[in-house]
Each structure stands twice: as structure tokens, then as C-alpha cells.
Specification:
heterodimer; A: mainly alpha; Rna Polymerase Sigma Factor, Chain: A; Arc Repressor Mutant, subunit A; 2 domains; B: mainly alpha; 4 helices; elongated
């Protein structure tokens, strides 16, 4: 008897990953449902373009379906998917440097209409940073990865990761200083 | 520097995170998987068909060419009276032998002169 999508929704992720590894399409569909929010948010922070972020997220899931048999432990599917997502972004940024930012202003105005103000401002500020710096910042703040983990994931030297995060954080703080003032006002009130 | 994070930026990243669960996205991913699978199948079928066509078209010419080449290469250059000598020198006393010796000579020259 074929399993229904609702049936999978209640299962533990490791089991669903095991099923997907054996070619169960519905199990993989459930994984896409569960993990899409995290992957899409990561991509949005990285590229400041919702459409591009969703395209890249789709690519990440297509790759993961193709390579899912390479997962060694089903319980470590999350970190494995994270690696795929970051590699996808790195590949994209290597390919598309020339096009990046060509029409950023227009995209910000048209694409981000349904974003919250914070998300929009944060993404705009991240986009103003050099790509490697913004990547390190996103991995540190959004993914909560340590500097060593970021260095391993991105093949950037540890010292460079540290300085990217330090300088990037300072620049971001400057660009988003309005939020600092707002927080201070709220605290005082 | 340790792994400490700026509290303001941390809170902004948390606030910026949205719950993005969209059935449309899932459908697109699954459709993409189907498309790739179809493409892969079509690619495989095309290769099989091409191989069959190639085999049908080229079977006779390839066999003929191989036959001609084999008989040409094994043709004896100098007919010797002694049958045993003929057998012993057979590998060298043929076009293939001359070609082989020439190639070895060229390789030797290349190593000694050009390097």
C-alpha cells in the first residue's frame, strides 16, 4: 500500500531520509517540505533576491535527490544538506560575479515587497558587503557556525574568516545603526 | 578573536527569519526531479539507438577494414628458404615488424635527442 504524504509528516527525519535514500519519492517530498524554509532563508540572506534564492534552493534539492545515497548517516542529513546549499551558493557566486549587483536596486524595489522591514534592511546591508564577507557573516549569525567550521566549509583560511566576520559585523552594525537606536529607545522607555 | 556574536546582529538575524513553507515550491522541486529523470532516460535511449544504428551501418565496413589491415600488416617482406627461419623471423619480417621497429626507433630518438 503506498504511503500518503500525511503519513510521512509524522515520521522521524532519519527514517524519512533512509526511505528517500532507497528511492522513495514521497519521502523525499516530505524532506523538501521540512527543510525548504531553512534552505530558502539561507539563500535569501546570501543573495538578496527572492527569485534567485528560490531557484538556487530548488537546485539544492535537485542535487540532494541525485546524491542522497551518499548520505552516510541519515541522522546527519541536515549538515549534509547545509554543505550542498553552501556549495551551490559558492558555485553560483563564482559563475555569476559579472552579473551580480547589475540591477540590485531594481530588484530590491520590486522583489522584496512582502518581506518584513528587518529582513529587507538586513538583506540590503548584507548585499553591500563583499561576497565572501557576507557569506561568513551569514554562516556565523544565521547558521551559528563557529569560525573553524566556516573555514572548513568555505575553504577560506581561518584568519581570513575571523577578520571577515569582525569587519563585516562592524560594517553591518554601522549600516543598521537605526535598529540599535530603536532598541535603546525601547529600553529607555 | 573567539566565536562571540554581536547581540544586535544576532537579534536582527532572528527577526529576519521567516517561515517559508510553500507547497508550490515543493511541487516545483518534484517536477524538476521528474524532468531530470525523463531527460536522463531519453539520453540513455538515444545513446542505445545510436549504438545500434552505428553497429548496423558500420559492421561490414569495420570488419573489412580490420581484415585488410591484418593481412597487410602480416605480409612477409622477404621470402626465406628455411621454413623454421621464416617462422622465427616472422614478427620482424613483416610490415607490422617494420612499423614496430620504426616506432621504437622514433621513441629512442625522441628520448635521446629531443630531451
Amino acid at each position: 500500500m503506498p504511503a500518503t504524504p500525511g503519513h510521512y509528516a509524522e515520521g522521524p527525519e532519519a527514517l524519512i531520509v533512509s526511505l528517500a535514500m532507497h528511492g522513495d519519492r514521497q519521502a523525499f517530498e516530505e524532506l523538501v517540505r521540512r527543510r525548504q524554509s531553512w534552505v530558502r532563508n539561507l539563500m535569501r540572506r546570501c543573495c538578496n533576491d527572492e527569485n534567485l534564492a528560490d531557484d538556487l534552493s530548488q537546485q539544492v534539492f535537485l542535487q540532494s535527490w541525485r546524491k542522497i545515497r551518499q548520505v552516510r548517516e541519515p541522522s546527519r542529513f541536515g549538515p549534509w544538506l547545509k554543505r550542498l546549499a553552501i556549495n551551490e551558493w559558492l558555485q553560483h557566486s563564482r559563475k555569476g560575479d559579472a552579473l551580480r549587483g547589475a540591477d540590485n536596486e531594481e530588484q530590491i524595489a520590486t522583489v522584496n515587497v512582502d518581506k518584513t522591514g528587518v529582513a529587507m534592511d538586513l538583506d540590503k546591508a548584507l548585499a553591500a558587503l563583499p561576497e565572501a564577507v557576507s557569506m561568513c557573516i551569514v554562516l556565523s549569525y544565521y547558521e551559528r557556525m563557529t569560525h573553524t567550521e566556516i573555514a572548513e566549509f568555505t575553504n577560506i583560511q581561518l584568519g581570513t574568516v575571523k577578520s571577515h566576520i569582525r569587519r563585516g559585523s562592524e560594517n553591518l552594525r554601522q549600516m543598521l545603526s537605526a535598529y540599535d537606536d530603536a532598541t535603546a529607545t525601547e529600553d529607555a522607555g | 578573536m573567539n566565536n562571540e556574536r554581536d547581540p544586535l546582529l544576532e537579534s536582527l538575524f532572528l527577526q529576519a527569519e521567516q517561515e517559508l513553507i510553500d507547497e508550490d515550491f515543493t511541487t516545483k522541486v518534484m517536477a524538476g526531479i521528474d524532468r531530470r529523470r525523463r531527460g536522463f532516460l531519453i539520453g540513455r535511449l538515444s545513446i542505445i539507438v545510436l549504438l545500434i544504428v552505428f553497429e548496423l551501418l558500420m559492421n561490414t565496413p569495420i570488419q573489412d577494414s580490420v581484415g585488410t589491415l591484418t593481412s597487410t600488416m602480416s605480409a612477409t617482406l622477404i621470402q626465406l628458404e628455411n621454413e623454421w627461419l621464416n617462422y622465427a623471423l616472422g614478427p620482424l619480417n613483416s610490415i607490422a615488424g617494420v612499423v614496430g621497429v620504426t616506432l621504437l626507433g622514433m621513441q629512442f630518438l625522441f628520448r635521446k635527442v629531443l630531451r
